Backbone:
């Protein structure tokens, strides 16, 4: 059995996320994104690799979309409406609610750019009708064999990591995620799962970020300085996600600093989006959920709609304009007007896809930007790059991989050289096989397979009985979350000799059985044959050496009653000092360690003595020992301890004499 | 598995309560309160001094009372107590392992349990039920506090009315409330819990989403599936190593507000426990019903998808939601008639779904008939409850979810409140209510028992107004409920709302779910026909049923890569091997995986031996490895051909092997030699 991963997008790059996973006969497409850096056919994943004939309904079991960002959903209307996929599509409630807004906004911007829209408004509507919304943690039975489940991913409202399981094989595809809470969202949260494969994003494969607070302050200071000097601030963002987060930040700051400078949204879209955010408040951070009754954080007081005529109006302002990364549309239009003035400010997100103007602005400090061969823009304005991001940093990725401990990991959604570094770390530090496939590559990994057997009650009971080495896996450990609200799901783990007491019995034509070793002989109709060791050997004592000359009564006479007990208890003390394990029981005239049993032997011709060992004289005390096969090593260890030890009996026995 | 019905279901407000014993775990199914017994108490202080003393006069007076019709003075004028599930007190709360709560109503008795010393069970509730249930309990506590302001706190911990002398002389109806049908329920009465008890209870609750897997103790997988009754209500599946159980409570196939009854999620379970049903008393007549199940058709059942869709369609076909909407429309027209006639309308219905539906329909009707009548909602928790309904799209029916996707509010009330068509107040004495007050009006307010809450004041205000209308749920005993407000001139409309599955749906549902075993209430058995394909167990209150286990063993999964490394031994018929690795018990699965630390090359030596060794054969095996000796026969060997004997080893060192019928003893002073001898024995004996 194996899992095949065909990477159609986001292989060694960011953009058009799309991985098709074949797992035990099921085929799942995770994400169906578009690449913002291209306007030609390269903007979509190469769907022909899924099915040459275009029969996608039979080629795929389902499509799963992790969140509403275009690099994860941008190609979906094209795939369902133009390519004709009609099977089920799963995404979370917020993603289903917000995705049409994102897609519509993108489509409009493309129209303005005068390109083929590739999909229409109707396409978006029709496409969304095929979507089955899911809640977090809800176990969805896609069909008889395929189970999927969404986990909170932070990142944007409704973003989810998806778990998929077919038969014995299980995997997680993370989409984009954030391991630390931000202004409006909580941190990613997932259960400890048994995984064959983890496919994770790796946008910040090598970056380690410090506190978000300082970086937020830097941003606010830059914005404040600009508007205080009468400048205009352009914040190119997508309509949803970052816009709300920054807006909460600015609102809060505006209130505190009592600023009156207008904050604009370029389209009614963002304001409309707030309606959705209010209904979906349960998907935001704990803090925002709690304050909901008194003040909904998405009721922005200082925010107004923007009008084109305001572009060159005098006075400072802050403008949120779509699309992000200045890939075209309105944000580009405003950029062309505002970029030439040095009092203006343009903020850029932490990451811009190659090919966009945002990307050009980030790489070095260009003074001129060529839009096309006829248009050139002078860039004199200030540029502030946001250094906080809704993506996890390298530490977060490592933490997640370590927590989930999958058998294999695949990195996508990152930059090739950095991914290679992270891959090395995962392999060397965590010992997990890791891959960074390029687009259109297929990675095949083996999966665990199980044989099923019926276990007898006796075996299960013996495993459930608590013993010293029995460990209940720590409950806090079971659920990973950057925040502290993890839920405990206790499970049991037995890794001691009780497992080895189980016997697996396979008989032709019958289901395999696991029984306890005590049940085996009965099952076979055989009688037990006990194989035991015995050894009766002498041990030297100090007292006997001394008392001999005084011709006192023989050792045998003395070694009765209490004295036997004294000897045994002396031995017991000695052994408990020397043995690291084994449960030593002092039974008065006997000593027992596991199956090893020892007592003082007074019989002169004990059948357990080997004649050519030590001289049978009265200087010594004989100990008769017996043990079973299982404790062979332990027994010889005890015997060697005893043989190298002289019993210090003098003081005690003298008194008695 | 054991099943004990602690209390049969009694409609929407009093769900059933059962105890289940699965895989050694005790599971309590719901923990309700019988709020209908609040009727026992009078909500208003009366001048009559009925409780002065127990002198002979008063006893005689009371005896006389027993013969005449019930009046307001027969009610108990004291701070109310609350009736819990009687049989639950017989169980030690500390022995309960899991509590499953199916609805807000099934949660009302929970604080009694959670405040018990040593209570440590895991409580599972859906997120929405937890929130609504908490609000209901808080409301109950606050209404009760208000009641106490009339009577003052009880001075003794054992109230006067609970004394046997008092109970003995009660009217029959009253006695029935106090003691139950079998006169056994006296111990079920409890004073109400406190607000702190409620808080503490909520802290102990673990919330779930629909279809979220909760794993108890690594063994039981517990999942909630929507039941359609109310927002957040659910049925449960409990999957243990030996048994898959579905517990079906009050369920409604198609809801107008809550997520529909998810019966597909209940498939694949071998045991179904049917708990509550909706029935219009004995009136529900099955004989006239043509929805009988055809046993022949069931034989040809196949598991294909078409069939499932077909059956689902048949389950959903006579859509009850239309009928329910019509009932609401009828109430709305009655209300409109009333307000047109200058009377007010009082609706003390506490079902969230009904209120939400009425608010929407009523406002449409009022607007279309241009009646300018205000609607008031008076309840300490109404504001929060209404706000809550607009932020939980995941818990609502498909049509409501569509509103989310088109960016509209899930329920209209937010808009209606903003437009000031609906006014929400926490209490009747809220200053805003007094300044807003306008009659006629339409008021929604708790409590349906007519013993607690704002409804008491309003009813006293309007009870003598023949133009006003009171809307009650059927199931409330109107005669007793209205006693304190007599004489009643007010019109009363009693309406029955669907509150569970109809009996005729039982059969088609079974066909869809295909369980092997069905647990069904004994008293309803005659009303349904169940095909032989299902084994049926009938239960009645306070009886424990033992259900035989269907599987004798637990399934264990062994990783193949691990199994291939086992040391297999072939016997006559079977191959056997000792297990290695780590056994994980999680999510109800037992899995054997390779240990994280490879076993420290433990000696692969059999620990259990069987068969009879042959001394000669042993000697031969020993000589192969350079160990030589002789056989010394034991004394009595003449009579048996057995292999018993003593083998004396001379080479390389001295050793003795006592070979017996049932055991062998190796005597050696040398570790190395002993271990070689054992190896030889392993060859001549069978062992593992
Ligand atoms: Zn993203
Ligand atoms: Zn992305
Ligand atoms: Zn001996």
Residues:
């Amino acid at each position: 059995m194996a899992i095949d991963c065909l990477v159609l997008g986001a292989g060694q790059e960011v953009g058009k996320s799309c991985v098709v996973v074949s797992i035990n006969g099921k085929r799942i497409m995770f994400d169906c994104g578009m690449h913002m850096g291209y306007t030609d056919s390269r903007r979509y994943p190469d769907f022909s690799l899924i099915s040459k004939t275009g029969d996608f309904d039979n080629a795929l079991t389902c499509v799963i979309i992790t969140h509403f960002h275009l690099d994860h959903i941008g190609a979906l209307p094209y795939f369902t409406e133009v390519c004709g996929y009609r099977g089920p599509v799963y995404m979370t409630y917020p993603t289903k609610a917000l995705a049409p807004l994102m897609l519509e906004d993108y489509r409009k911007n493309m129209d303005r750019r005068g390109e083929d829209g590739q999909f229409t408004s109707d396409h978006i509507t029709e496409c969304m009708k095929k979507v089955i919304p899911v809640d977090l943690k809800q176990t969805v039975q896609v069909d008889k064999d395929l189970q999927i489940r969404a986990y909170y991913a932070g990142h944007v409202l409704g973003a989810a990591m998806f778990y998929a399981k077919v038969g014995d094989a299980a995997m997680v595809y993370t989409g984009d995620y954030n391991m630390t809470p931000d202004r409006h969202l909580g941190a990613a949260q997932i259960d400890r799962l048994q995984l064959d494969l983890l496919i994770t994003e790796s946008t910040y494969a090598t970056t380690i970020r410090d506190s978000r607070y300082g970086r937020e302050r830097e941003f606010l200071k830059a914005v404040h300085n600009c508007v205080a000097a009468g400048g205009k601030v352009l914040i190119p963002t997508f309509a949803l996600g970052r816009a709300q987060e920054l807006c909460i930040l600015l609102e809060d700051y505006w209130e505190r600093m009592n600023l009156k400078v207008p904050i604009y949204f370029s389209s009614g879209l963002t304001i409309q989006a707030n309606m959705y955010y209010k209904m979906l408040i349960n998907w935001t951070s704990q803090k925002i959920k709690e304050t909901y009754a008194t003040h909904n954080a998405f009721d922005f007081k200082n925010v107004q709609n923007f009008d084109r005529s305001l572009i060159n109006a005098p006075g400072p302002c802050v403008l949120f304009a779509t699309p992000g990364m200045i890939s075209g549309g309105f944000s580009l239009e405003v950029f062309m007007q505002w970029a030439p003035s040095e009092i203006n400010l343009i903020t850029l997100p932490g990451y811009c896809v190659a090919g966009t103007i945002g990307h050009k602005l980030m790489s070095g400090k260009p003074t001129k930007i060529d839009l096309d061969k006829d248009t050139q823009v002078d860039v004199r304005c200030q540029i502030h790059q946001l250094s906080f991001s809704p993506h996890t940093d390298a530490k977060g990725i490592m933490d997640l991989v370590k927590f989930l401990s999958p058998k294999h990991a695949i990195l996508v959604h990152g930059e090739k050289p950095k991914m290679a570094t992270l891959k090395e770390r995962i392999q060397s530090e965590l010992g997990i096989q890791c891959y960074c496939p390029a687009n259109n590559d297929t990675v095949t990994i083996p999966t665990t397979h199980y044989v099923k057997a019926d276990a007898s009650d006796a075996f299960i009971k013996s495993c459930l009985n608590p013993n010293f080495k029995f460990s209940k896996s720590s409950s806090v450990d079971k659920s990973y979350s950057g925040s502290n609200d993890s839920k405990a799901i206790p499970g049991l783990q037995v890794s001691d000799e009780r497992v080895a007491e189980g016997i697996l019995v396979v008989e032709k034509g019958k289901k395999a059985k696991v029984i306890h070793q005590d049940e085996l002989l009965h099952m076979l109709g055989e009688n037990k044959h006990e194989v035991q060791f015995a050894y009766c050997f002498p041990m030297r004592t100090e007292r006997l050496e001394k008392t001999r000359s005084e011709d006192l009564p023989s050792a045998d006479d003395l070694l009765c009653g209490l004295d036997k007990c004294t000897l045994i208890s002396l031995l017991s003390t000695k052994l408990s000092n020397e043995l690291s394990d084994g449960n030593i029981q002092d039974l008065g005239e006997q000593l027992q360690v596991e199956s090893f049993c020892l007592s003082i032997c007074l019989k002169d011709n004990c059948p357990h003595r080997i004649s050519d060992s030590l001289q049978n004289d009265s200087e010594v005390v004989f100990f008769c020992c017996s043990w079973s096969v299982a404790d062979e090593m332990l027994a010889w260890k005890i015997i060697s301890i005893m043989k190298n030890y002289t019993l210090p009996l003098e003081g005690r026995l003298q008194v008695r004499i | 598995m054991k099943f004990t019905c602690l209390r049969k279901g009694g409609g929407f407000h009093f769900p059933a309560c059962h105890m289940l014993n699965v895989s050694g775990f005790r599971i309590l199914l719901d923990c309700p309160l019988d709020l209908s017994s609040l009727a026992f108490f009078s909500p208003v202080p009366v001048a009559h001094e009925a409780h002065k003393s127990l002198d002979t006069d008063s006893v005689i007076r009371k005896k006389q009372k027993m013969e005449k019709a019930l009046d307001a003075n027969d009610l108990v004028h004291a701070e109310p107590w609350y009736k819990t599930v009687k049989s639950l007190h017989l169980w030690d709360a500390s022995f309960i392992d899991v509590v499953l709560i199916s609805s807000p109503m099934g949660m009302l008795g929970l604080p009694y349990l959670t405040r018990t010393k040593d209570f440590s069970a895991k409580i599972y509730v859906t997120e929405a039920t937890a929130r609504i249930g908490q609000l209901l309990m808080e409301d109950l506590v606050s209404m009760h506090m208000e009641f106490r302001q009339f009577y003052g706190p009880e001075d003794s911990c054992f109230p006067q009315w609970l004394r046997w002398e008092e109970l003995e002389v009660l009217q029959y109806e009253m006695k029935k409330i106090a003691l139950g049908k079998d006169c056994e329920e006296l111990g079920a009465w409890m004073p109400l819990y406190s607000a702190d008890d409620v808080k503490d209870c909520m802290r102990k609750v673990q919330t779930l989403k629909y279809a979220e897997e909760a794993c108890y103790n690594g063994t039981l997988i517990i999942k909630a599936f929507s039941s359609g009754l109310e927002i957040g209500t659910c049925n449960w599946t409990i999957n243990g190593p030996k048994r898959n159980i579905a517990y079906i409570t009050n369920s409604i196939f198609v809801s107008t507000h809550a997520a529909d009854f998810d019966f597909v999620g209940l498939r694949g379970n071998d045991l179904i426990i049917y708990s509550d049903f909706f029935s219009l008393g004995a009136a529900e007549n099955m004989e006239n019903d043509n929805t009988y199940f055809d046993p022949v058709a069931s034989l040809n059942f196949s598991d294909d998808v078409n069939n499932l869709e077909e059956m689902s369609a048949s389950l959903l076909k006579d859509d009850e939601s239309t009928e329910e909407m019509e009932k609401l429309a009828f109430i709305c027209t009655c209300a409109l008639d009333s307000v047109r006639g200058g009377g007010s309308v009082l609706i003390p219905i506490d079902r969230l779904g009904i209120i939400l539906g009425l608010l929407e329909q009523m406002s449409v009707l009022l607007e279309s008939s241009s009646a300018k009548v205000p609607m008031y909602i008076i309840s300490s928790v109404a504001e929060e409850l209404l706000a809550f309904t607009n932020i939980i799209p995941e818990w609502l029916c498909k049509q409501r979810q569509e509103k989310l996707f088109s960016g509209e509010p899930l329920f209209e009330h937010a808009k209606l409140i903003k437009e000031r068509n609906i006014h929400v107040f926490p209490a009747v004495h809220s200053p805003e209510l007094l300044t807003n007050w306008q009659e006629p009006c339409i008021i929604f307010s708790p409590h349906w028992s007519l013993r607690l809450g704002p409804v008491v004041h309003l009813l006293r205000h309007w009870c003598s107004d023949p133009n006003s209308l009171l809307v009650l749920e059927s199931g409330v005993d109107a005669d007793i409920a209205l006693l304190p407000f007599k004489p009643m001139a007010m019109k009363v409309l009693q309406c029955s709302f669907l509150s569970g599955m109809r009996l005729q749906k039982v059969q088609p549902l079974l066909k869809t779910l295909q369980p092997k075993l069905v647990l069904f209430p004994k008293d309803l058995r005659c009303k349904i026909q169940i095909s032989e394909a299902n084994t049926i167990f009938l239960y009645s209150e306070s009886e424990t049923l033992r259900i035989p286990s269907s599987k004798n063993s637990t399934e264990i999964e062994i990783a193949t890569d691990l199994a291939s490394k086992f040391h297999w031994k072939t016997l006559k018929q079977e191959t056997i091997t000792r297990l290695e690795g780590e056994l994980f018990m999680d999510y109800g699965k037992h899995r054997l995986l390779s240990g994280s630390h490879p076993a420290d090359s433990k000696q692969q030596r059999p620990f259990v031996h069987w068969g009879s060794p042959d001394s000669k054969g042993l000697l031969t095996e020993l000589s192969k490895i350079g160990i030589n000796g002789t056989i010394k026969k034991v004394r009595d060997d003449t009579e048996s051909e057995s292999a018993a004997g003593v083998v004396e080893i001379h080479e390389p060192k001295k050793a003795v092997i006592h070979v017996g019928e049932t055991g062998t003893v190796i005597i050696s002073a040398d570790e190395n030699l002993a271990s070689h001898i054992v190896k030889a024995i392993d060859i001549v004996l069978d062992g593992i």
